[in-house]
Each structure stands twice: as C-alpha cells, then as structure tokens.
Amino acid sequence: MAKTIAIIGGGNLGKSIADGLLSNDFEASKLTITRNRIDFLNAYKDQGVAVTKNNKEAVINSDIIIIAVKPYKIEAVLEEISDEITTDKILVSVVSDFTIEQISNCLSVQPSIVRAMPNTAASVNASMTCMASKNASQSDMEEVTSIFNALGETILIDEQLMDAATVLGACGIAYVLRFIRAMIQGGIEIGFDAKTANKIATQTVKGASELLLKGGNHPEAEIDKVTTPKGCTITGLNEMEHNGFSSALIKGIKTSLDKIS
C-alpha cells in the first residue's frame, strides 16, 4: 500500500476507512481526507493526515480515490473532480445505489473503477467488504483489495448483488447492534447491571461469530450443541420464534433492499 489515497467525504464511513488504514500502519502523510467542515477532521490532521475542503486538490495528489459521500451527492462530486481524474488513477466508490456505469458516465476519461461496500467496522479492522469491477486490471484490483484487506475481510461479487451486499453487510451492522441491545435489555431484566450485561452480550456475540468463522459449521449445528430436551435454551428459542424473531429479521432485510433498489 505504497500509493497515495484520497478519501472524498470524511463522514462516518470515510472516517471508519481512514481509522482502519491508520491503525494498520498506513503512512498518514500518504492519506488525504476531504470534508466541507474540516474542523471535524482535526484528529486526523494531528496525526499527519492531509485534510482539505478541496476535492480537486485531493484527487490531483492521490493515486487511489475513494468516494465516500452521501448517495445524493455523488454525481455532483464526480462532475467536480472529473477533469482531475486520469486513466492511471483508481477510482473506488463506497456509495450505495450508484453503478459503475453511472460513475463512468460522469467522467470525461475512464480510469479503473471499483465499487466496494465496507461497513463501519472498518474502523476496528473488522469490516466485511464486498467488491465489484467491470474494467479494473488484475493489478489494480490487487491494490484495492490490499486496502480493504487491511480493514477486515474482502469478497468479490457480481455488481448486480452490490445493493444486496449493502443491506446484508453494511446495514447489517445496525441489525446486529439492535440484537445486541435487546440482549443487554434482557440481561438487565433478569438481574444484571447494564455494564455487566453489555460485556456478557457482546462477548457472546463475538464468540458465536468465531464458532462459525473458524468451525465452518451451519448455525443450526452450533445451536444443537447448546439445546437439550426440555431445556431453557430451546424454550427461549421457541418463544422468540413464536413471536416472529427470524421472520422479522428476514422481512427487515428484504424491506431494506426494496428501499435501496
């Protein structure tokens, strides 16, 4: 990762990417972050990161440009920087619901274009990033993959699934956090103080994920290990299912996709 990187849009996701890069020893002097309110980026400036309001300047000085603005802003931003984009640069969009073809149509020249969808866990190097490209070379994809591998795990998908990846991987952070919050509330109701309930719930969720990631089993196989006949686990699971737990989650995921599509 010796190339210079510009993150256009220092909002929550842009800052999460920057945090992940910096915590993985990416050289601060090779990173630029833009935002209209640059006072919100003072912590990065103090670390040696270049911060600016000037998107064009950031693009000129960078090899890889990561567009991390709100979806309604991307066309205007691409038109603003179009003259500064050259064919030797790599353009990475982490903006949802805006295709590679749409990006290409906003530019006067055609660089390598990659769509990537990380999540805010990039800030702690635990993101799941889905990536797609139609015209990037193998070496360019290796460059982009190296960036997002520094932020967690990566996977290549068909661009047609990028909206679905946004829902499952990026929106999914919120779904899981809401589940953890409910676990904490339940823990408080059965006697724990909030801090202790938080610790138990978050470590339990981490442990459940590690069982699947390292063991490679289906979730039901791991569930079977902790359910006994007439036991408290199966009783609780059945009560959740009777109240629509799985159905509500599936419907929520599908509704989010309907909204973004």
UniProtKB/TrEMBL annotation:
<dbReference type="InterPro" id="IPR008927">
    <property type="entry name" value="6-PGluconate_DH-like_C_sf"/>
</dbReference>
<dbReference type="GO" id="GO:0004735">
    <property type="term" value="F:pyrroline-5-carboxylate reductase activity"/>
</dbReference>
<keyword id="KW-0521">NADP</keyword>
<dbReference type="InterPro" id="IPR036291">
    <property type="entry name" value="NAD(P)-bd_dom_sf"/>
</dbReference>
<dbReference type="InterPro" id="IPR028939">
    <property type="entry name" value="P5C_Rdtase_cat_N"/>
</dbReference>
<dbReference type="InterPro" id="IPR029036">
    <property type="entry name" value="P5CR_dimer"/>
</dbReference>
<keyword id="KW-0560">Oxidoreductase</keyword>
<feature type="domain" description="Pyrroline-5-carboxylate reductase dimerisation">
    <location>
        <begin position="159"/>
        <end position="259"/>
    </location>
</feature>
<keyword id="KW-0641">Proline biosynthesis</keyword>
<keyword id="KW-0963">Cytoplasm</keyword>
<keyword id="KW-0028">Amino-acid biosynthesis</keyword>
<dbReference type="Pfam" id="PF03807">
    <property type="entry name" value="F420_oxidored"/>
</dbReference>
<comment type="pathway">
    <text>Amino-acid biosynthesis; L-proline biosynthesis; L-proline from L-glutamate 5-semialdehyde: step 1/1.</text>
</comment>
<protein>
    <recommendedName>
        <fullName>Pyrroline-5-carboxylate reductase</fullName>
        <ecNumber>1.5.1.2</ecNumber>
    </recommendedName>
</protein>
<dbReference type="Pfam" id="PF14748">
    <property type="entry name" value="P5CR_dimer"/>
</dbReference>
<dbReference type="InterPro" id="IPR000304">
    <property type="entry name" value="Pyrroline-COOH_reductase"/>
</dbReference>
<feature type="domain" description="Pyrroline-5-carboxylate reductase catalytic N-terminal">
    <location>
        <begin position="4"/>
        <end position="95"/>
    </location>
</feature>
<comment type="function">
    <text>Catalyzes the reduction of 1-pyrroline-5-carboxylate (PCA) to L-proline.</text>
</comment>
<comment type="similarity">
    <text>Belongs to the pyrroline-5-carboxylate reductase family.</text>
</comment>
